[in-house]
Specification:
mainly beta; two-stranded antiparallel sheet; 35% strand; six-stranded antiparallel sheet; single chain; 12% helix
C-alpha cells in the first residue's frame, strides 16, 4: 500500500471514529433524581365454583382461560379468541379430595344477571351482547342454551354501536363478564 493510500485510510478511519464518538457525546446524561415508572397489575381469581358432582374446566381439564375481543371504534366487538369450557364429573377418586374426572353432558346457560360489559369511563349503552356456542351455533341466555353437551366453545359479540354523545376513548379496555352455568338435565 502506498503512503498516499495509507494516509487516506487513516484519515477515513479517524473521521468515522470521531463521528461515532461525537454522536454519543451529545446524548444527555440523566440528572440525579430522574425517575421513570410504569404501572403493572396482576389479578385473577379461581373463576370456578364446583357443584356437588360436576365441575366446569377449561379445555382438556385445564384452567378456564380468558377470551380476547376485537373492538371497533363505535363500540361494536367480536370474539377473536373464544373460551372453551368442559363439564366434568367431580368426585373423590380415593385421594381424599375431589378432582375433575370424565366429561359429562350438561345444559349450558347464562345466570339471571346476564352478560355485562365495562369499558373504562366509556358508556356501554346501546350494546346488545350475545353469547354463542360456536360448535352448535346456539345462543346462551338465562333460559336456554346448548343442551346435552360436555364441551362448549363460547364467543361474545355486539353488532350494535354504543349510543353515547361523549367521544369514546379507544385506549380503554373493554371487558365482558358472564357467569355461565352447566346444569345436569
Amino acid at each position: 500500500m502506498t503512503n498516499k493510500k495509507k494516509l487516506l485510510v487513516t484519515a477515513l478511519v479517524s473521521t468515522l471514529g470521531f463521528s461515532s464518538v461525537s454522536a454519543y457525546a451529545d446524548a444527555p446524561i440523566p440528572g440525579s433524581g430522574d425517575v421513570a415508572s410504569t404501572f403493572l397489575e396482576w389479578s385473577g381469581f379461581a373463576k370456578v365454583i364446583p357443584g356437588n358432582d360436576i365441575v366446569i374446566t377449561g379445555a382438556r381439564s385445564g384452567a378456564v382461560e380468558d377470551g380476547v375481543l376485537t373492538v371497533k371504534g363505535d363500540g361494536t366487538f367480536e370474539t377473536k379468541t373464544p373460551i372453551i369450557l368442559e363439564s366434568r364429573l367431580y368426585w373423590d377418586q380415593g385421594s381424599g379430595s375431589k378432582t375433575a374426572g370424565d366429561l359429562f353432558a350438561t345444559n349450558w346457560t347464562v345466570d339471571a344477571d346476564g352478560i355485562n360489559a365495562t369499558w373504562g369511563a366509556n358508556s356501554t349503552a346501546g350494546m346488545d351482547i350475545k353469547m354463542t356456542d360456536i360448535a352448535s351455533g346456539t345462543e346462551l341466555t338465562s333460559t336456554a342454551g346448548a343442551n346435552g353437551v360436555s364441551t362448549v366453545t363460547l364467543s361474545v359479540n355486539s353488532v350494535s354501536p354504543v349510543t353515547s354523545a361523549a367521544p369514546l376513548n379507544l385506549l380503554e379496555p373493554l371487558v365482558v363478564n358472564a357467569n355461565v352455568l352447566a346444569t345436569v338435565a
